């Protein structure tokens, strides 16, 4: 094959690739305008009617969120719904937001000890805008070594629906429903129908639904379960080791600040010699003191 023939074949491949890309883009555009755009009109109507009924009936179902190291946070939906919509030339967005009031009287009062544990729960509460940290106790170095927690405040829940001609998919995201996180799922145009709206409604009301269920192979389910168990065991050991280390370091700080003598410090360090490298550092300090 000559050079000109090779170039002609390459040009033909590029033309076919460009035509195929243009065809797929046209199909996505058609799917958006014929299926998704009208489907979001129907979804908006469904959510509007759902809100009207919920504001009238005001069902009081409890929401529970498990927080490691603290326990279950219990809350009840406050029926203050905000439904917004944004339209662009080739995209649509629908957002539904509403608050959940934390039932403080139904939440545990937990006394937490250890710097790492206090930081973990306090950080979690702060990230999710939850109040309830009380009576913090600090060591001489200023670190909070113990505190009492009892959750209070509000949790914002949100459902977001987005579709565009670029992807020709309905992208759904739900924030703070089952856990303090955002769950995302994409739906093909052919699956956006009345049954999907029904599942969305039941999901929002925390009724039995199949909205976010995935058909996973049994072997994969077992693998995920085993991985979760291993991570939990690892987390427990890491927390235990960290707490022991912090207890020993706190003891070291108290001895150092009260005694103020190198001999006394060296004796204290020997009693907590399990801290990696601590003896070596104190011996260096002792040598420099000479």
Overview of the structural elements:
This protein has two domains: about 210 residues, no CATH class; about 70 residues, no CATH class. Helix 4 packs antiparallel against helix 5 and helix 5 packs antiparallel against helix 6. It starts with a helix and ends with a helix. Strand 8 and strand 9 form a beta hairpin. Strands 1, 2, 3, 4, 8, 9 and 10 form a seven-stranded antiparallel sheet that branches. It is built from six helices and ten strands, in the order H-E-E-E-E-E-H-E-E-E-E-E-H-H-H-H. It is α+β, with helices and mostly antiparallel strands and about 290 residues long. It is flat, with a radius of gyration of 29 Å. The relative contact order is 0.10. The protein is about 50% helix and about 25% strand.
Salient structural properties:
290 residues; alpha+beta; 2 domains; seven-stranded antiparallel β-sheet; three-stranded antiparallel β-sheet; 49% helix; 26% strand; flat
Helix-strand blueprint:
Blueprint: H1 3-57, E1 62-67, E2 71-77, E3 82-88, E4 91-102, E5 110-113, H2 115-127, E6 131-138, E7 144-152, E8 154-164, E9 170-175, E10 182-187, H3 194-204, H4 218-259, H5 262-271, H6 278-289
Antiparallel strand pairs: 1-2, 2-4, 3-4, 4-8, 5-7, 6-7, 8-9, 9-10
């Amino acid at each position: 094959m000559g050079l000109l023939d090779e170039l002609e074949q390459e040009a033909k491949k590029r033309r076919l690739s460009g035509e195929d890309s243009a065809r797929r883009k046209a199909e996505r555009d058609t799917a958006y305008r014929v299926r998704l755009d009208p489907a979001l009109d129907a979804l908006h109507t469904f959510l509007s009617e759902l809100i009207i009924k919920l504001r009238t009936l005001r069902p009081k179902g409890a929401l529970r969120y498990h927080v490691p190291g603290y326990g279950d946070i219990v809350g009840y939906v406050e029926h203050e719904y905000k439904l917004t919509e944004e339209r662009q030339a080739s995209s649509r967005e629908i957002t539904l937001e509403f608050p959940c009031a934390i039932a403080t009287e139904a939440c545990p009062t937990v006394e937490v000890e250890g710097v790492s544990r206090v930081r973990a729960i306090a950080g979690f509460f702060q990230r999710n805008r939850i109040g309830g940290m009380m009576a913090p106790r600090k060591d001489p170095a200023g670190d909070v070594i113990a505190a009492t927690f009892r959750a209070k405040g509000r949790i914002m829940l949100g459902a977001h629906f987005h579709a565009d001609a670029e992807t020709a998919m309905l992208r759904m995201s739900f924030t703070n429903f089952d856990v303090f996180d955002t769950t995302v799922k994409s739906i093909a145009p052919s699956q956006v129908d009345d049954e999907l709206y029904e599942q969305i409604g039941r999901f929002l009301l925390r009724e039995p639904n199949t909205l976010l269920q995935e058909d996973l192979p049994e072997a994969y389910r077992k693998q995920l379960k085993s991985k979760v168990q291993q991570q939990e065991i690892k987390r427990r050991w890491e927390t235990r080791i960290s707490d022991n280390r912090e207890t020993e370091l706190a003891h070291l700080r108290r001895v150092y600040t009260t005694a103020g003598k190198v001999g006394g410090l060296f004796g204290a360090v020997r009693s907590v010699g399990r801290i990696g490298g601590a003896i070596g550092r104190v011996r260096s300090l002792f040598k420099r003191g000479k």
